[in-house]
Amino acid sequence: xxxTISEKAASKGGGGDDGGSRIxxxxxxxxxxxxxxxxxxxCCVKIVDGRDVYLTEFATENDYLRLKRLRGRHFTFDASFxxxxxxxxxxxxxxxxxxxxxxxxxxxxxxCYGATGAGKxxxxxxxxxxxxxxxxxxxxxxxxxxxxxxxxxHVVHLSYLEVYNETVRDLxxxxxxxxxxxxxxGIVAAGLTQYRAxxxxxxxxxxxxxxxxxxxxPTRCNETSSRSHxxxxxxxxxxxxxSSNNIVNRVGxxxxxxxxxxxxxxATDQRTLRSLEGANINKSLLALSSxxxxxxxxxxxxxYRNSKLTQLLKDSLGGxxxxxxxANISPSNLSFGETQNTLHWADRAKEIxxxxxxxxxxxxxxxxxxxxxxxxxxxxxxxx
Length: 384
Ligand code: ADP
Ligand code: MG
What we know:
Distance between the termini: 51 Å
Number of strands: 16
Strand content: 15-25%
Structural class: alpha/beta
Shape: globular
Bound molecules: adenosine-5'-diphosphate, magnesium ion
Number of helices: 14
Radius of gyration: 21 Å
């Protein structure tokens, strides 16, 4: 019985013709903040019909027809959340189906992308009063496990890690940096805490504490670094009987990713290779952009090995996985450039097709730094 459910879940999603599926891309607009209003900011983003996003700066109100004809002013996504959307709206539209699929042994991942201050951590972690996607997903997972009368054998493990400046750290048990190793299941962080979770109640506190363990900017005490990526992985292990009544073990993995601020990676000014290297640009975020570019273009070689983040997320991007991107944007006209960049990037992410299955991917040699920087320059040109 489980096998047929699992097959159905696997064929869902975007439904590409090669058996793979499309990445689902969502946009979430956050409310204008008091600080922005006090700085004289106006709202320059309008969301229409739950899908269309218009950048209205320099346009008269409701001039959507004109904006549709302008380049980079109108975008459309699988769903776009206005600033009135609740955490629950975002969870149920973007992630609930992935949770269902993970319970049937299929991997899923959700990325939040956007500039610093655009609402990524709010969307992923949220607050005690308004918990975000990470917490709502785990809550839903436990309630679905409880509802299922046919099992009682699901075991849930959580791990929470950070990639900062190409160093991987355990957010549940801070200490020495972790080393990435390749094993049968892919790339793993050796020694990463696998926390066995029994209920939702303990999880929010655990994640809040983990978030406090994220690296802070040396110059800004108590403020989370905008260059830190946080990855929560939820592994659900269970067993089923196969057709000849043998017990087989299954694992479904859900990865929830709060990416570093995109502002540096997408800086659109022309830079030389040298200044790129010196600019302390987030290598992992650049590598993610390069991988997405290569995936979109259907390249055979995807440069996963260029960063810690892309190594860790290899199965989530190109493998058999349901993938969701949530692009977070600010409504302020003072952030117009960032918002446009984020929307452009999200628009491009719509083109990625994830593979249905790739068991025998060939091992690839690491790209040189120069190749990566070249790719980046190309990407930046495109983003202009
Ligand atoms: P990021 O992680 O992208 O840097 P944050 O999630 O920290 O941004 O959001 C910046 C600020 O805006 C925080 O104070 C956060 O609570 C607030 N915020 C973000 N999104 C929302 C939202 N949808 N509703 C209310 N407040 C939000
Ligand atoms: Mg954040």
